[in-house]
Each structure stands twice: as C-alpha cells, then as structure tokens.
Amino acid sequence: MSLLQFFIAVDVTVVNIALPSIGAEFGVDGHTLTWVVVGYTVTGGGMLMLGGRLGDLLGRRQVLLLGTSLFGAASLLAGLAPSYSLLVVARLAQGAGEAIALPAAMATIVLLFPEGPRRSRALGVWAAVASCGLVLGFVLSGVITDRLGWRWIFLISVPFILVVLVATVLLVRGDRPAAGNAAPLDVPGALLLTACPLLFAYGVVEAGEPGTPAWVVVAALAGAVAAAAGFVRVEARAAHPLVPLRFFAHRTRVTANLTTVLLSGGLSTSFLLFTLYLQDRLDYGPLGAGLMMLPLAVALIGCSLLVPRLLGRWGARACVLAGLGFTGAAMAVIALVAAVDAGGAALVPAMFLIAAGMGFGIVGLQYVAVSGVTEDDAGIASGVQRAADQLGGAAGVTVCVGIGFAPALHTFDPFLVATALATTGLVTGAALARRMGLPAAAEAPAAAQGADPQGAAPAGEREGADGRETAG
Q1: Longest CA pairwise span in the chain (Å)
Q2: pLDDT at 53 exceeding the cut of 80
Q3: Is the pLDDT of residue 178 over 60?
Q4: Rounded to an integer, what distance in angstroms lies between the CA atom of residue 429 and that of residue 446?
Q5: Is 160's pLDDT higher than 70?
Q6: To 5 degrees, how large is the angle CA 122–CA 4–CA 132?
Q7: Cα 86–Cα 89–Cα 92 angle in degrees, nearest 5
C-alpha cells in the first residue's frame, strides 16, 4: 500500500521541474502547461469520493486492483504521448486511477489497525510516505529530466506499479462488499463533483490569460458554483448518494477536512513557487533545482516520524495549528526572499518550515478525518479526506497561476499574492479548528480506549496496556 502511495504522490509533483522541457518539446506556454499539473490533481480529487464508494460497495481489493491498473496504463501513455493533448488526457486518466485506488488502499490500512496508538503510527507511516513522495517527486524530476529526458518521469513508475499489482494479489486478503452493494452508483453526483473543480480551475486559469473574453471566465466560474449546488441537491435527494450528507454531521470530520483544504492549498502553492523561483529567477537547471529540494525531503522524513509520537502527547489540535502556522511562515519567507532577490540558500529556512507544516498538519488531520469509521464508511471517510487534500492543493495552484501571473503584475507579485491568499486561508483554518472542536491533547488517548471524541461508536478492537490487541 505504501509503495502505491509513494508513486501516486510522486506523480503529483514530478512534472513541476520537467514543465520547461515539456513546454519546449510541444511548443506550449506556461499557462497551458498548468493543465499537466492541475488536470491530474483536480480529476483525482473530484473522483475520489466515487472511488471511496466503489471500494465500500464492490470490495476494496477488487477496486484497488482496478485503480492501480488504470494508473499504470495512464503512466505508460503519458510517457509515450506524441502530442500535448494526449499527455493531458493521460494525466486526467492518472488522476482517475488514483481516485479509484487510493481510498481502497487507505481504507485497508485503517481497518487493519484499531483506533488509538497503532492506527496513529500506521497513518504516520502512510503520511510520511505520501509526504516524501511529494517532495522526492521534485528531486526525481530534476535528475531524470536532466539525464534521461522528461518522458521517463512517467515511465519509471510502470514496473513498480506492476509489483504493486502482483503483491496485492498475493498479500491483500479478499473482502466482501458492504451491505447493500446492489444499490446503483450515484453517477450524477460523481459527475457534478468532478465538474465543479474542473470548471473552477478553467475559469481561474483563463482569467490570467491575455485575450480571454470575460464572459468565458464568468461562465466557467458560474458553472462551478452551479455544479457545487447541484451536487448538494442530488446528494440530499438520491436514494443511494455518493456521500450521504449525514456523514458531514460529524463535526470533527468536517473541521478536519475543511482545514485540510486550506493547508494543502498553502503547501502546494509553496512547491510551485519554489520551482518557479529556482528555475525562472535563479536560472537553475532541472538537476540543480531538484537537488535543492533535498533538505526539505530530509526534514520532512524526520517530522513525519516524530509527529505521530507527539499526537497522543500534544493532541490533534496542537499539531494541526502548528502545521498551519509553519506553512504560513514558509509562504512569508518565500515572498521575502523573492522580493529582495536573494539566492537559493536563503530558501533553506522556508524548506524546513514547509516540512514542519506537512509533518504536523497532514498527519494530525488524517488521524482526525477517519475517527469513528466503520467497515461500511471507511472508504467514504478516506475518499473525502483525500479529496480535500487534492482539491485544496489544486485550488491553491490554480489561484496562484490565474491571479498571480496576471499581466498587470510584476515578476515577484505571484509570491506576494500567494502569501496573502495562503495566510488568509490559514488564519481561517485556525479559527475553524478552535471553534469547531478538533480533539485536544487530553482527548487523543481516549480514542485509543475506543471512545470517539464526538460520541461515535467504539472501535471494534483496542490495544491493551501490554500492547496486545484485546476485544473492544
């Protein structure tokens, strides 16, 4: 599961440093290249809840194999794409494969471990692998693009995906579909949920493109709002909704997912700004830009291993608020470095802050977002949390590209615009975390005893004082 998570996370960021090479081969400008990044994350995020529902209804092992196969085939197509249009199609298919596979993989991990210290450690490993994949995507992109060419950033994952498929057949136990698996899938809900972020991304990106008529931008953004409203209406009336609205009655989960959107938006924007500053302003080549990310990767590994231990001691609230604060500070440092035109070494403090933001924030939020889940809704909880992560990151990148690179702005203004947007979002997230009840330190150990902070049903198993599993 972690091997799959790693390569899916790598594909979120691996194209960033390769973008200039892709644009040069296909003759595509920077705005159009945005779809290589945003198309993957938006499609993946929009379809994740459908993927989570598929796992619950059809069986996680079967859905895991289906999604992984689609992801591997799309990776092969991306590496062999003869045109830019086909490359974008392959990236959309990669996002769809991720959306189908990842909720099943995360739900498998969640159900293997009871709530408490063991699940916290397991999700800590899961989050650490994802975080390292995101960061090492930059490093791998630089090395591979410089030595082998940009196509190999996609092709290199294909043999590892084959290993995941074989290992899943051999090692992952088959499971029965959830009760009521004969119910039809909520296809209208899935289409509306995917259309909303795609229309939003298109409208915002085109807003910064010279010559785009204003009515096109307005129509796309209005369509995104209409799709969002339509999704809520469909889910409220559907006999078998994609995501039952009662799922969002769990106040702690709602808080965790809203905060994930804001935190991921800030983190994804930070990565994009790093790439732009190193290559466009400091004239680093792909290899140099990739190697500059190594301090961030090392710091992130350390943070991701440390935070699960602190989760029970500090509580989820303190960890999440610390992650929000570290991310906001990182954005401010990047903007300051860009404003004074400092060298790449001046970005090292921001790298450590981003690592701390991801380590503290994402681990804490993942733990809270799956609190109180059962066999019947583990896939939905995993899909919602991952969708919040993906769509938040895509929204941050989209706003940065669409607004930050408007023709009227100066070269370093994107950094200032992104900092203002991220800081506003992070302050709002901190207020939400305080007012809506993320678990405090005293409440985290309670989960280990089978008690959910919001009164959900106890976990089926818990860890005894001697570390052995005992019946709940």
Answers
A1: 68
A2: no
A3: no
A4: 24
A5: yes
A6: 65
A7: 155
What tokens appear for 428 in the block? 């709002």
Give me the amino acid identity at 269.
Answer: T
Q: Is 461 helix (H, G, I), strand (E, B) or coil?
A: strand
In the 8-state DSSP scheme, what is residue 469?
E
Taking the C-alpha atoms of residue 417 and residue 350, their distance in angstroms, rounded to an integer, is: 17
**What is the enclosing helix (H) or strand (E) of 374?**
none
Q: Minimal CA–CA distance to 48: which of 2, 89, 103?
A: 103
Q: What is the dihedral of CA 15, 16, 22, 27, to 10 degrees?
A: 140
Residue 428 is which amino acid? T
**pLDDT at residue 181 tops 60:** no
Other Cβ atoms closer than 10 A to 28: 18
Query: SS3 of 462, please?
Result: strand
DSSP assignment of 321-367, as one string?
HHHHHHHHHHHHHHHHHHHHT--GGGGHHHHHHHHHHHHHHHHHHHH
The H-or-E segment that residue 156 falls in is none
**Selection from 263, 254, 258, 452 nearest residue 360 by Cα:** 263
Structure tokens given for 173: 């136990």
> Distance between CA atoms of 90 and 71, rounded to whole angstroms?
9
Crossing angle, helix 84-112 and helix 2-13, to 10 degrees? 150
Whole-structure pTM over 0.85, yes or no?
no
Whether 353 and 326 have beta carbons less than 8 Å apart is answered as: yes
Q: Which of 131, 111, 464 is nearest to 305 (CA)?
A: 131
Cα 42 to its chain centre, rounded Å, is: 10
Helix boundaries (H) for 172-315: 187-207, 214-237, 251-276, 286-291, 294-314
Contact 40, 194 (CB under 8 A): no
Q: Hey, what are 65's tokens?
A: 């194999």
Using alpha carbons, list the distances in angstroms from residue 65 to 100, 162, 183, 296.
9, 10, 22, 32
